[in-house]
């Protein structure tokens, strides 16, 4: 059984359209840049190795950014925020 959360509408809207891993993809893409993969399964091991090799500071920076952006979005009740 999957637990559910009771949260205000603005939080549900934000959670449904805002990926929490946006910070990771540009960094991973940069790391894998220039490497050609013939299948999805071929990229999984290098991607997992890179993600597992990142230190505490990397993930702390990701969490700090996530908290800051979440706070901005919550204060605007899920409205679009320009960078």
From TrEMBL:
<protein>
    <submittedName>
        <fullName>Uncharacterized protein</fullName>
    </submittedName>
</protein>
<dbReference type="InterPro" id="IPR036397">
    <property type="entry name" value="RNaseH_sf"/>
</dbReference>
<dbReference type="GO" id="GO:0003676">
    <property type="term" value="F:nucleic acid binding"/>
</dbReference>
């Amino acid at each position: 059984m999957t637990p559910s959360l009771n949260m205000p509408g603005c939080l549900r809207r934000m959670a449904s359209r805002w990926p929490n891993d946006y910070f990771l993809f540009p960094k991973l893409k940069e790391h894998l840049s220039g490497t050609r993969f013939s299948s999805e399964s071929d990229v999984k091991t290098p991607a997992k190795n890179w993600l597992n090799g990142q230190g505490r500071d990397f993930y702390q920076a990701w969490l700090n950014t996530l908290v800051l952006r979440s706070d901005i979005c919550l204060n605007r009740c899920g409205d679009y925020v320009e960078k």
